[in-house]
């Protein structure tokens, strides 16, 4: 069974200042999503599921989906604040989405086999897609929580222009994930890397393996996400900025012995657009990859 690719594209890029999912960065006007889908198709994925917001559906379908509908099966699902379990409601004043784990739950009805999850605004690279596709394609039991994560080196995933969120991970000697902690305020200052929590700085060495939300799952993940989302809403659902993250779900499953996560280390260069100032670097990096023959000058 060919794996599916779930693309988290519901965000409007608040820090970036626009709909960065469709912002051109390639020499022929390609977006970062275009490169991800190109890599996914050549790595053997069989279906793309875009998780978007209803308000951007028209622009997204026209600018992104229409390019691929003749090349690979496309599905659209919507992440909205009011899509909640029975008995729960959106607290007054909340506008922030519920987070990445809530987002993948929206794809439950269109996924029936192994699947990978990626961010729409991250450039992961050719080999990263091949690594996770090969792992997912070898899944023998789709009901078993035998998961995977493509890991990147922290120092290669930072922005020069502001803080970033990363899932900082630890692995055992067999490359199985031991734990993963979402650090929402990682910064780089000269040669120092650190994260900030409650106004205190904690040092990082830069060689840590981090999750960029490129993870592989079987459909068994959905029942766990559903259960944990209810617990999350009970404890933090009244907060206006609380988020239900994928790394949190994965970490809890590992700690409770309910899942095994193989870390697939990628040496591809990661880059993404978190801030407007990141864009020139991304454009230049893609140009170099085109010049090296890794990507054609025109993808589609």
User: Approximately what portion of the residues adopt beta-strand conformation?
Assistant: 25-35%
Determine the structural class based on helices, strands and strand pairing: alpha/beta
* CATH topological fold name: Spore Coat Polysaccharide Biosynthesis Protein SpsA, Chain A
Query: Spans with pLDDT under 50 lasting ≥5 residues?
Result: none
Give a quick summary of the entry.
With 300 residues, this protein is an alpha/beta fold.
List keywords for this structure.
single chain; 300 residues; alpha/beta; Spore Coat Polysaccharide Biosynthesis Protein SpsA, Chain A; eleven-stranded mixed beta sheet; two-stranded antiparallel sheet; 13 strands; globular
Can you describe what's shown?
The chain is of the alpha/beta class. Helix content is about 25%, strand content about 25%. Strands 1, 2, 3, 4, 6, 7, 8, 9, 10, 11 and 12 form an 11-stranded mixed beta sheet that branches. Strands 5-13 form a two-stranded antiparallel sheet. Helix 2 links the parallel strand 2 and strand 3. Helix 1 packs across helix 4. The mean pLDDT is about 90.
Helix-strand blueprint:
Elements: E1 4-8, H1 32-43, E2 47-52, H2 57-68, E3 73-78, H3 100-105, E4 115-119, E5 122-123, H4 126-137, E6 146-153, E7 164-171, E8 177-189, E9 192-197, E10 200-204, E11 209-217, H5 221-236, H6 246-255, E12 260-265, E13 271-272, H7 279-291
Parallel strand pairs: 1-2, 1-4, 2-3, 6-12
Antiparallel strand pairs: 4-11, 5-13, 6-11, 7-8, 7-11, 8-9, 9-10
Helix pairs in contact: 1-4
